[in-house]
Specification:
The complex is a heterotrimer.
Chain A: H1 2-6, H2 34-66, H3 72-80, H4 82-115, E1 116-117, H5 121-129, H6 136-147, H7 152-161, H8 174-199, H9 202-210, H10 215-243, H11 247-253, H12 260-270, H13 274-302, H14 311-314, E2 316-317, H15 321-349, E3 351-354, E4 363-367, H16 370-375, H17 388-419, H18 424-434, H19 441-451, E5 456-458, E6 461-463, H20 471-493, H21 497-505, H22 510-521, H23 523-539, H24 542-547, H25 555-563, H26 568-594
Parallel strand pairs in A: 1-2
Antiparallel strand pairs in A: 3-4, 5-6
Helix pairs in contact in A: 2-13, 2-17, 2-19, 3-13, 4-8, 4-10, 4-15, 5-26, 6-15, 8-10, 8-11, 8-23, 9-10, 10-13, 10-20, 12-13, 13-18, 15-26, 17-20, 17-23, 20-23, 21-22, 23-26, 25-26
Chain B: E1 3-12, E2 15-25, E3 30-34, H1 41-49, E4 56-61, E5 64-65, E6 76-79, H2 91-101, H3 106-119, H4 135-147, E7 153-157, H5 165-182, E8 186-190, H6 193-199, E9 202-207, E10 210-215, H7 217-222, H8 227-232, E11 238-244, E12 247-250, E13 253-256, E14 263-269, E15 274-276, E16 282-294, E17 297-304, E18 307-314, E19 325-330, H9 332-335, E20 336-340
Parallel strand pairs in B: 3-8, 3-9, 6-7, 7-8
Antiparallel strand pairs in B: 1-2, 1-4, 4-5, 9-10, 11-12, 11-14, 12-13, 14-20, 15-19, 16-17, 16-19, 17-18
Helix pairs in contact in B: 2-3, 2-4, 3-4
Chain C: H1 3-27, E1 47-53, H2 61-71, E2 73-79, H3 83-92, E3 101-106, H4 110-116, E4 119-120, E5 143-155, E6 186-189, H5 195-222, E7 226-228, H6 231-238, E8 248-252, H7 255-261, E9 272-275, E10 282-291, H8 297-308, H9 310-320, E11 323-324, H10 333-338, H11 350-368
Parallel strand pairs in C: 1-2, 1-3, 6-7, 6-8
Antiparallel strand pairs in C: 3-10, 4-10, 5-8, 5-9, 5-10, 5-11
The chains are: A mainly alpha, B alpha+beta, C alpha/beta.
Chain lengths: 603, 344, 370
């Protein structure tokens, strides 16, 4: 034993520490000083303070000031009225259920994408990310084409069983909400967990198998516990998205369901009851904060340095009929849930629909490119017209800006978190980073209006932020930032400290260690983070709609505009434009996937 | 034989990992698979463990094919190269893992974990986090984990590869004691001849997916079957020659041989096949160019007619200074091996 | 790291933008002589004017260009969300206004805007051309620009009784919708989340009175009315014209004309029609006002005048599906031919709407959704 100890070069300086858990992440040769930690936090925190906390505080302040019975009254109303309590309960319940279903669908997919090489894999990855960018109104159209009263499924069933009424009722049901949430958010699980999984040492699972564990036991006792940090991160993100869901609840859930976010909108916009809206926003934020605190505690407990493998070493080809069969099943599930509504949209965008109301069903009367042709003319010479190429360019510019900004802010924050997660500063800050995701968009939107009443000096120019296009990538970054941090932190945490120690011993400065060791090792996670930022920006609507000058719209703004007018041609054009949005998203995803972070190669 | 590998083929993409490998392991026997890295040793273990499937060939246990048995039903143990300890479980839970999989009742499990930890020399460390272990400790825990379920066959994949020499030498001995005490049937994969020769009843030498030689350590050392085996064992005194009628003609002279070969041959002079002086056998005169002290032996380089030859002598033997002339004599039946040169 | 790639992406995006510009020029059929937004300025710097409005705002570029040329102005439109959101933003920014003019507040939101005091009174000379009943604010803090009638629409083909349906006549009154033959045929929008939904609720309140409307809605529920949250879902999912199962939908009286104009393939007459019998529709009136504190009051006045002028008024129907308040403005042939205009829409005073809206919606929710 004594000899062993002489040769200990392990993560811990001593093997006889009385409190080993305290030492888990502190075994650096170069322990960042408080000063270094603060300097890492400087940019991300200033950003959040200026563009999140300040506007949020402004609007909450203004809102509560409008209440006549003091600040407590709206909270009492929110927590005692049975309808408000119903809303809160429903919001939490549907979010929990949606999250579970999303994990159930996403985890097998993540496994497939992480562990196997097969033809069409990058395409599948790109396709499954598209839902994330699609406007709710258009998604509703897609689901309707499949599951609506005259959707293909109902028509088929009616034909098959000679029914007179559509057997499946989809719109305005809880099922619709759940299915739509799975549709939107499965990509979060695929990307977050899939990336982590692809680096997990397959020998741990093999060791379990040799020790007598069957596939399920291996999954349950080894793989899932090791994936736990990534699963927890994905579940948190999915839950918060579902928890603050607005469009899905409104459009697909129908009037019988109201989430907190919908209720905040109703109170703030419909009834101008700003104090109550503010109270609900604070409750929503409180739930997010609570959840995030629980998560960060858990994540610290769950994550441990793993010996990561280059994903190229963990992947294998799909061999054997059983494996292929299972893979085909997973792919089919993903295609049905995530891709079929999109495909339905694309098909409808090239189908001239001659609806004969007296017949059961809409009868496609042939293929047409008319909707695409119409897109490039401006029939009414409206100021707000823009050709699709302009919209694509504008959407991509905002997306590129968001990717750059979110990575520039997210990397240092993730670093600070991963390097010293026991520090008091980090334990305090970590949960705060997630708050923008859990914040009511309606409230924050109004916050920007109230908060930035005076023009700012940016780069030597007076900019009224409320009307400046700069606001768009800033607003998108608020949403993308937590995703970037959550994608990067687990990867950075699982780098063995010994690697950093080795580099430091060889004379690398902390900055060089970061650049030469950490960054190449988490290259894949950086890609994941970039794809999140890209898709978030491409799909975001609210902030874009506010700032976009009518003649320079983004794709989603143009889709919305077309959909808000009656007429088959407008409808068809909106579907055509949605299809273009899908293509842009898929192309963007494929392009980002192709990037390689460092010369060392992907790890 | 308890375990029989019959003509196993396995390739990854265009790389042939195993190309017709056959050998057997008897009950209670320790077989070492020795070869350079990339020769297919680890793949072999994966196949026996059931983690991979061979493209061709069969694996028999007690005469029955086990190819269709999944890894968790084979009842084998495998100790991975860098141990693959479960980082989310403490030492006790790591060791208990296999026992729990076989549904051993909890009290017995606990007892077995305690016993096994004592066996590997780490008593009482059940609750320690595996992240806090040194390399040697990890190795012991990994061994304990694979031993605890009492596998029918234990496979060890370069178990001492990552450790320093002193530690390794001690652990080889300990491992040997433990395996012998348990009469454990085992396959031990290594690239280190010392480990293989110390531990194994028999050694299978592999190269590029093929078996080069199977035999006891002594057999292999005495009579390497191929130039590869000889080179791999560190034998480097090669001469070219021509064999005919029980004799071989080399640049250093003509020697009698036992092999009945004729034609061009490679001649190997084994490093321990020489004696100092001229008392017996065939004398060679040369100049001592270098010597290095290796504990019990001296390694000596001698230049004989322009050929550099290495020999080992017991360190008790008095050697001249470097640069001084030296006479050695070879015992042809022990010192000389000839291998026919395969054309092309 | 991949800053290089991000840069590439940026450049790509810029290149695309650059490419897009010539396309704009090529694609635009330019029947007007005025180039779109790059009017050569007669004097060095055009004065900026910001018009805050809702998402649905649209205007022809030639019309705006004419204004910009005449007053040497550069007009920027700030679309701040739906009507309610845009108004909230105007109210919350009243200490540091985002714009000079706010357009788009309607008679259901007017009281909120006036109570919050975001507008400066302006009695435009063009007020003389506007019918008195549309002048909702006697102090001229907000002036009407357009109106649109929220009416029941029906799918004509459904009521020809050819294949599956036996009903051959569309309903004529609100009461008709309670008849058994219209069971399960109507889709309406939720007044809490949709402005046509609120308008239709107000129509029923106007017609049946505060005492009677809830009973009426109970009748609609018994007759299997479908409620959805937004106009899009009602019109593009539930309505039979788009493949749904409901041949009667709450939309605008202009919708049939748009169905004609934007038909694919082209048709000779609208496939839908609006029901415009007395007190079945509710008239939404949109107003414009000068935001308090504007430093460009003179230009803002000119813009208000401009919105009330014939040029802008005649441009509105096609761009925004709303109709001119200016008596002298003409509407297009298609509208003259196919637009059904209610003679007597249901009426409720804006002040009453502001005061009772929440209670009405809550009561409605209790009856219809619970």
């Amino acid at each position: 034993m004594t000899e062993d100890q002489q040769h200990t070069t392990g993560d811990k300086r001593t093997t006889t520490s009385p409190r080993p858990h305290r030492l888990r992440f502190t075994g650096y040769v170069l322990r960042p000083t408080q000063y270094a930690a603060l300097s890492l936090w400087l940019a991300p925190l200033s950003f959040l303070a200026l563009f999140y906390f300040y506007p949020l505080a402004s609007i909450l302040g203004v809102s509560f000031a409008r209440g006549e019975q003091g600040i407590a009254a709206p909270f009492i109303e929110a927590l005692t009225s049975s309808s408000m309590r119903g809303v809160i309960g429903f919001t939490i319940g549907q979010a929990a259920l949606s999250t579970m279903l999303t994990l159930l669908v996403g985890l097998p997919g993540a496994y497939l994408l992480a562990r196997f090489d097969f033809r069409g894999k990058s395409l599948l990855q790109a396709l499954t990310a598209i839902p994330f960018v699609m406007p709710t109104l258009v998604v509703a159209v897609g689901f309707n084409a499949l599951l609506g009263p005259r959707g293909w499924l109902n028509l088929g069933l009616m034909d098959l069983f000679n029914l007179t009424a559509p057997p499946i009722r989809f719109a305005n049901t809880l099922t619709a909400i759940l299915v739509a949430h799975v549709f939107y958010n499965t990509t979060i699980v695929l990307r977050t967990v899939g990336d982590f999984w692809s680096h997990l040492d397959p020998r741990l699972g093999q060791a379990a198998q040799v020790l007598g564990a069957n596939r399920w036991q291996t999954l349950w006792r080894i793989t899932l516990p090791l994936l736990a940090p990534a699963i927890a991160a994905a579940a948190l993100l999915v839950f918060i998205f579902d928890f603050t869901s607005f469009g899905v609840i409104l459009v697909l859930g129908g009037p019988r369901f109201a989430s907190l976010e919908v209720e905040i909108y109703n109170q703030a916009v419909g009834l101008f009851n700003l104090p109550l809206a503010a109270a609900l926003s604070v409750i929503q934020l409180g739930c997010t904060l609570l959840l995030t605190v629980v998560y960060t505690r858990l994540a610290r407990k769950l994550s441990r340095p793993l010996s990561q493998r280059p994903s190229a070493q963990t992947r294998r080809r799909l061999i054997g009929w059983r494996r292929r069969f299972a893979a085909a099943g997973i792919v089919a599930l993903l295609l049905v849930l995530l891709v079929s509504p999109l495909a339905a949209l694309a098909v409808r965008s090239v189908t001239s629909l001659d609806v004969d109301s007296n017949r059961q069903g809409s009868v496609p009367s042939g293929l047409t490119l008319a909707f695409y042709r119409e897109l490039v003319v401006n029939p009414r010479q409206a100021v707000s017209y823009a050709p699709p190429s302009t919209a694509i360019a504008i959407s991509l510019s905002y997306a590129a800006g968001t990717v750059a900004l979110a990575l520039a802010l997210g990397l240092p924050a993730a670093w600070a978190l991963a390097r010293d997660s026991q520090s008091r500063l980090n334990r305090l800050l970590d949960p705060l980073l997630m708050l923008p995701l859990g914040t009511s968009a309606v409230t924050l939107g109004l916050g920007f209006i109230v908060g930035f009443g005076k023009p700012l000096m940016l780069f030597g120019e007076r900019v009224d932020l409320r009307t400046s296009p700069v606001l768009v990538p800033l607003a998108h970054t608020l949403v993308a930032f937590p995703f970037v941090v959550r994608s990067l932190t687990p990867a950075l945490r699982s780098i063995r400290p010994r690697l950093r120690q080795a580099a430091a011993v060889m004379g690398a400065s902390p900055w060089q260690v970061a650049r030469r060791i950490d960054l190449p090792l988490v290259g894949r996670a950086v890609i994941v983070a970039a794809t999140f930022a890209f898709t978030i920006s491409l799909g975001e609507f609210g902030a874009t709609a506010l700032i976009t000058r009518p003649e320079y719209p983004t794709l989603s703004v143009m889709i919305y505009r077309l959909l808000s007018q009656p007429g088959a041609l407008n409808y068809g054009q909106s579907l055509a434009l949605s299809t273009i949005l899908m293509l842009v998203c898929a192309a963007g995803m494929l392009a980002i996937e192709r990037m390689r972070i460092a010369e060392i190669g992907e790890f | 034989m308890t375990l029989n590998l019959l003509d196993i083929h396995k390739s990854f993409g265009s790389t042939r990992a195993l190309d017709g490998v056959s050998f057997g392991v008897a009950a209670g026997e320790i077989v070492a698979v020795l070869g350079p890295s990339g020769c297919g040793k680890s793949t072999l273990l994966s196949l026996v463990a059931g983690l991979e499937t061979p493209e061709q060939g069969d694996i028999l246990w007690d005469g029955q094919s086990i190819l269709s048995t999944p890894p968790h039903r084979r009842g084998f143990g495998l100790m991975f190269q860098d141990y693959a300890l479960f980082p989310h479980l403490n030492i006790g839970d790591n060791i208990a893992f296999g026992l729990r999989m076989s549904r051993l009742p909890a009290p017995e499990t606990r007892q077995r974990v305690t016993e096994t930890l004592a066996l590997v020399g780490l008593p009482g460390l059940e609750r320690r986090d595996v992240g806090t272990l040194s390399g040697g400790e990890q190795q012991r825990v990994a061994l304990a984990r694979s031993l605890a379920p009492r596998p029918r066959l234990l496979m060890l994949d370069e178990p001492l590869g990552a450790l320093d020499r002193t530690l390794r030498e001690r652990l080889i001995q300990e491992l040997n004691d433990i395996l012998r005490r348990l009469e454990q049937t085992a396959i031990y994969v290594t690239h280190d001849q010392e480990e293989a020769f110390t531990l194994a009843d028999r050694v299978v030498v592999m190269n590029a997916g093929r078996v080069e030689q199977i035999g006891t350590p002594l057999e292999i050392y005495r009579r390497p079957a191929t130039p590869f085996v000889a080179r791999f064992l560190g034998m480097s005194n090669w001469l070219t020659g021509t064999a005919e009628g029980g004799r071989v003609t080399t640049p250093l002279g003509i020697f009698p041989i036992q092999e009945s070969v004729s034609g061009p041959v490679s001649v190997l002079i084994k490093p321990d096949g020489a004696r100092l002086g001229e008392q017996s056998g065939y004398p060679l005169r040369g100049k001592l160019t270098a010597q290095s002290f290796r504990g019990g032996t001296n390694r000596v380089t001698v230049e004989v007619s322009g050929n550099m030859l290495s020999f080992t002598f017991p360190s008790t033997v008095q050697l001249p200074e470097a640069g001084q002339p030296l006479t050695i004599s070879l015992a042809p039946d022990e010192a000389l091996l000839v291998f026919p040169v395969i054309p092309g | 790291m991949n800053q290089k790639h991000i840069l590439t992406l940026f450049l790509l995006a810029l290149a695309l933008t650059a490419c897009a510009q010539p396309t704009t020029a090529v694609v635009q059929p330019s029947p007007t002589s005025l180039p779109p937004t790059v009017t050569p300025a007669p004097t060095p710097t055009p004065r900026p004017l910001t018009v805050m409005t809702h998402d649905s705002f649209a205007v022809s570029e030639s019309v705006v260009a004419a204004f910009e040329a005449q007053y040497n102005a550069k007009v920027q439109f700030l679309k701040a969300g739906d009507t309610g959101t845009a108004l909230n933003k105007a109210i919350l920014s009243k200490d540091a206004p985002l714009a000079d003019v706010f357009y788009g507040v309607d008679n259901t939101f007017l009281s909120r805007a006036l109570d919050e005091g975001i507008f400066e009174p302006y009695a435009s000379p063009l007020v003389a051309d506007i019918p008195a009943y549309l002048l909702l604010d006697s102090q001229f803090r907000a002036l009407p620009v357009d109106y649109a009638d929220v009416c029941l629409n029906y799918d004509k083909a459904y009521f020809t009784g050819t294949v599956t349906s036996t009903v051959t006549a569309p309903p004529q009154t609100l009461e008709d919708l309670l008849l058994p033959e219209y069971k399960g045929l109507l889709v309406v929008e939720n007044p809490a989340t949709s402005s046509p939904g609120l308008a239709f609720l107000l129509a029923t309140i106007g017609h049946f009175g505060e005492e009677g409307y809830l009973d009426y809605w109970q009748g609609l529920v018994d007759n299997e009315v479908t409620v959805v949250n937004d106009w899009n879902t009602a019109y593009y999912t539930e309505f039979t014209r788009s493949g749904g199962t409901r041949p009667i939908v709450v939309s605008y009286n202009s919708s049939p004309v748009f169905e004609l104009i934007y038909a694919d393939p082209p048709v000779d007459e609208p496939p839908t029609a609006a029901i415009v019998s007395d007190e079945t529709c509710f008239r939404q009136i949109e107003l414009v006002g000068i935001l308090k504190g504007t430093p460009r009051r003179d230009l803002a006045e000119k813009w208000v005048d401009f919105m009330l002028s014939i040029a802008f008024q005649e441009d509105m129907p096609l761009q925004m599906a709303v109709f001119p308040v200016n008596k002298k403005a003409q509407i297009g042939d298609q509208f003259i031919q196919f637009l059904a205009v209610p003679q007597m829409p249901a009426f409720i005073r804006p002040a009453d709407i502001a005061e009772k809206r929440q209670a009405w919606i809550e009561d409605w929710t209790d009856v219809v959704l619970r």
